[in-house]
């Protein structure tokens, strides 16, 4: 396999890496935002805190193994690696996003909640039009860090045979009996993805903050 063939072969793993990253991010943002809002209710606070603590306190590899190996035997539901990975990465991301949103919500002045209550603004409109836009602006850098972490963490999926960047690099290395070139190419792809994301998000952040 020539160097060009190695580059192209490993490069096809970018699609798989991005598929897991973007899907997990979508789950993490939606679930994390919901849990952060739900946590404001005293009745559910202990439950949300317990779930977040459990997920953050256990390794991602264990969580992925649990959904791929343990759940089928316990519930009799067979999950393929895609669905197991989506659930594991999504819930893991949600736990961290919950804490990010929690800190973002706390950064909003309490007077805004009180004013909305006195003006009888519906709860849905309060969150959608007033609170969430402010929170997103405040936590944007932290969310970018979560995206970057997700890209790197998805490399774990290679241990289950999914042909992402890391797994394809391992295949090339094994076939060529040379790990140096293959792993360097994988590093270049990962760094390039993160470099692009950093540049794009920096542009967005500058444009966003310039309006305020």
Concise overview:
The chain has 212 residues and is an all-alpha fold.
Report what the structure shows.
The chain is mainly alpha-helical. It has one domain (3-210): MetI-like (MetI-like fold, Orthogonal Bundle), CATH 1.10.3720.10. Helices cover 83% and strands 0% of the residues. The protein has nine helices and no strands. It has helices at 3-11, 13-38, 42-56, 60-75, 81-106, 110-118, 123-153, 165-176, 179-210. Helix 1 runs antiparallel to helix 8 (165-176), helix 1 crosses helix 9 and helix 8 (165-176) packs antiparallel against helix 9 (179-210). The longest helix is centred in the C-terminal third of the chain and has 32 residues, at 179-210. The mean pLDDT is 90.
Overall CATH class: Mainly Alpha
Using the coordinates shown, work out and report the CATH topology: MetI-like fold
Q: How much helicity do the residues have?
A: over 70%
The CATH architecture would be Orthogonal Bundle
Quick one: biggest sheet? none
Secondary-structure element sequence?
HHHHHHHHH
Terminal CA distance reads: 53 Å
Average of the residue pLDDT scores: 90
Structural class: mainly alpha
Strand portion, in percent? under 5%
Number of domains: 1
Helical region count?
9
Give the overall shape. flat
> What is the CA-based Rg, rounded?
20 Å
